[in-house]
Design a protein that fits this description.
This protein has 756 residues and is of the alpha+beta class. The chain is built from 20 helices and 23 strands. 36% of the residues lie in helices and 16% in strands. The chain starts with a strand and ends in a 13-residue tail after the last helix.
Length: 756
């Protein structure tokens, strides 16, 4: 039997996850093949073993030309194999023609020089001869054109780094930080520079900005020049070590990306790392990383992983340095290869890694250092957790059960071995529901915030706890075949809970989360509240090549209503304000993402219709949050962050930069103290007294979930009392009770259907 690895998840191939996920074997089609399915939002390469970064990289000479790399026979074979898989098996059928060649050309240029700061206009003009010839090269197995372009890039990179290294001892010490120079932070659509002199001006400003950032971090000038010299020399050394596999990977990912952002080529080394993931060797910090320009960016965190539990590292943060141990020296990693950065971050369980980061909400590239203790992700730490919140309703108080599901997990090995007590999301939630019933709850909230997906089977079976028989999701394959899941024979009659239900989502709720939330919404079984979900609605398979392997999008998820979960995600019935930037996070933020579309609805029967009550529910919700200190705080934070995101230039005037930082800190402090005053809390003298960076989450310090759920430990009552209530969760409870009153829904402690 042929084994094909399939994922209902994954982002671009220049990503690495420093952990793993649980995999599930499932027969998705009535054919003789097994498919491994995982419906998480972002997972590509799992790096677990620790390989030390080489300390003996040879020193490259300044202005030494880059030695051109040549492609190999194995790469030619793999390029043809990749082309065949793309044309014959990709979900979105495309013709290999001049239009596709042009798209590949643009994506290749973009992937090599997204900020338009290396190539000259003359380079681009020269490359134009290849725009409509890349398709012919793929057919013939010729990689001449892409390697010419790649080698030119590496030469330009060496020239820029050499320029910086010559600037530091000769001119940098005389830079003027009192003038009105500014640096553009967004050059994706900027014109290409025509001359080297114009490039020199840009890179001089970049160097000034780097120096200024370090000066504002209270570093002495001599230490600054030493650090930057080491940084650029290291980058130059690594540039000269780039090999033919590096060039081939960049090009083949442009080819695959032309079909969709989740289709990707894995080099032999990345293939090895993927296989490590398949062996479930899981140690590290639990973070999905991606290269963006010269920085390493955090894409998402693994639920219950070390980084998630530490609470300081957030999606879209950029890692600039890595240190080991409590007092280990921070190694500057700007410009490093992604795999080399990962080599520094990962390590044995129980050891400490220090990360210097640029927070995602920093508009002036200010850095801070955080500590994370490496560990393994334990299945029990990803388990569903419950709590009860109380919602006052006139002269009575309703008790709402909350079930938080960090991921859709299953003990795959335990199930294969036939263990009766193997852990799974559905099994755990069923137990939690039973316990909540015994505590006389009036309704249930399923909290899927930050749940990036997981086992598809678990999404199906979890839905079965709340909906009595019927389809949950449709899967359309590249050949047009549509499979409706689950098949009736796999469903149990009856449901575990038929009382009032709400599902809470945010931008990081993805894939399996979207399948569950979409089904609950389509059936009218419950109300969906929170943020628009990620929009990851495609399925990938991993196929071997002569040289590496390809991750290929071969199927697409659709709701029972016929709507795709792709790109658009699930739009809640009642939307909460969100601090997540949709331009940076979510399927719609990815170039070449497959579109939202529809197919024929499945045969299903909606249980209830909430549409008639939605206008009044929204009106009641809006009335409450207008005077709610936490929602006022969230909206003001959103406004401030939106304002900062709109800035495309940064001043290189030291006094102005310092003043902008101080003004930003004052604004944030004022917003926080306004909230505290309204709630009768002690005011802060400085944001240092509070986790200032928690404001990046939808669930901020003011509206954060109980941390006791994250580490799996039980907190004593006194400690729980010190925790602020989760305002988003409380408001979800208010909305659910409003629905119960409007719709005359029976409370959850009155109806408990049994499964049989």
């Amino acid at each position: 039997m042929r084994i094909i690895a399939v994922r209902a998840c994954g982002l671009q191939s220049n990503m690495t996850i420093i952990f793993g996920n649980v995999l599930l074997i499932k027969n998705t089609m009535k054919k003789t093949r097994s498919i491994i399915i995982n419906s998480g939002v972002a997972l590509t390469l799992i790096l677990a073993a620790s390989f030390p970064v080489s300390a003996t990289i040879p020193t490259a000479e300044i202005d030494a030309p880059f030695e051109a790399r040549e492609y190999t026979r194995k790469q030619v074979i793999s390029s043809k194999q990749t082309l065949g898989q793309l044309l014959n098996r990709h979900y979105e059928k495309q013709r290999l023609n001049d239009d596709l060649s042009s798209k590949i050309f643009d994506l290749y240029i973009q992937s090599m020089d997204n900020s338009r700061s290396y190539f000259l206009q003359s380079d681009i003009d020269e490359f134009e001869q290849f725009r409509y010839k890349l398709d012919d090269g793929l057919i013939k197995g010729s990689l001449n054109a892409p390697f010419i372009m790649y080698n030119r890039l590496q030469q330009r990179v060496t020239e820029r780094l050499s320029f910086l290294l010559k600037q530091i001892p000769e001119k940098a010490k005389g830079y003027d930080f009192d003038n009105q120079d500014t640096l553009s932070l967004d050059r994706e659509e900027a014109p290409w520079f025509k001359t080297t002199a114009e490039l020199d001006v840009l890179w001089t400003k970049r160097l000034k900005n780097s120096i200024l950032n370090l000066r504002l971090a209270d570093k002495e000038d001599d230490a600054i020049y030493e650090l930057l010299t080491k940084r650029y020399q290291n980058q130059l050394n690594r540039t000269h070590l780039a090999n033919e596999d590096d060039g081939f990977q960049v090009y083949m990912n442009a080819v695959t990306h032309a079909f969709d952002p989740h289709t990707a080529y894995f080099s032999p080394r990345n293939t090895e790392n993927f296989n490590i993931n398949m062996s479930l060797s899981l140690q590290g910090i639990g973070a999905v990383l991606q290269t963006e320009d010269e920085h390493t960016k955090v894409v998402r965190l693994v639920p219950a992983g070390p980084a998630d539990k530490a609470g300081e590292l957030q999606p879209a943060d950029k890692i600039t340095g890595v240190g080991q141990g409590d007092k280990g020296e921070i190694v500057d990693v700007i410009g490093w290869r992604l795999d080399e950065v990962v080599d520094l971050i990962r390590g044995p369980k129980g050891t400490t890694v220090n990360l210097e980061i640029i927070p995602s909400d920093s508009n002036d590239l200010k850095t801070k250092v955080i500590q994370i203790v490496r560990d393994e992700v334990k299945l029990e730490e990803q388990s569903a957790q419950k709590e009860i919140i109380e919602i006052p309703q006139g002269d009575k108080t309703l008790r709402i059960g909350v079930i938080e599901i960090p991921t859709f997990y299953i003990d795959f090995q335990g199930r294969q071995e036939g263990k009766k007590d193997f852990k799974s999301t559905t099994r755990d939630v069923e137990i939690l529901i039973s316990e909540l019933k015994q505590e006389n709850i009036d309704g249930i909230i399923v909290d899927l915030r930050n749940n990036g997906g997981g086992s598809l089977d678990e999404a199906l079976s979890l839905t079965d706890l709340f909906i009595d028989r019927g389809p949950v999701v449709q899967v359309r394959y590249s050949n047009g075949y549509i499979q409706v899941l689950p098949e009736n024979k796999n469903q149990q009659a009856g449901i575990v809970y038929d009382g009032p239900l709400a599902v809470l989502t945010n931008r990081l709720s993805a894939s399996a989360s979207e399948i569950f939330a979409g089904a609950i919404q389509d059936y009218g079984r419950g109300i969906i509240v929170g943020g628009q979900t990620f929009g990851k609605g495609t399925v990938q398979s991993v196929l071997p090549l002569e040289h590496g392997q390809i991750k290929l999008t071969q199927a697409k998820f659709y709701r029972v209503s016929g709507d795709s979960t792709q790109n658009q995600g699930v739009i809640p019935d009642i939307l909460f304000p969100s601090l997540f930037d949709k331009d940076k996070i979510g399927e719609s933020a990815l170039d070449e993402a497959l579109p939202w579309d529809t197919i024929r609805p499945a045969s299903y029967k909606a249980q209830r219709e909430f549409q008639q009550w939605l206008p009044l529910l929204r009106e009641k919700h809006q009335s409450r949050i207008e005077t709610n200190p936490d929602f006022i705080f969230l909206n003001e934070q959103k406004s401030l962050m939106t304002e900062l995101r709109q800035r495309t230039d940064i001043t290189l005037n030291e006094k102005q930069r310092k003043q902008e930082r101080e003004d930003n800190e004052k604004q944030r402090l004022a917003i926080e103290n306004q909230r505290r005053k309204a709630k009768g809390m002690e005011l802060l003298d400085s944001l240092k007294d509070e986790d200032a960076d928690s404001s990046k989450k939808d669930n901020t310090a003011a509206i954060s979930t109980d941390d006791s759920k994250k580490d799996g430990s039980k907190k004593d009552d006194a400690e729980k009392e010190d925790k602020e209530p989760d305002a988003l969760l409380i408001e979800t409870g208010n909305i659910l009770t409003d629905l119960m009153n409007l719709g005359k829904l029976p409370s959850g402690n009155l109806q408990h259907a049994k499964r049989h």
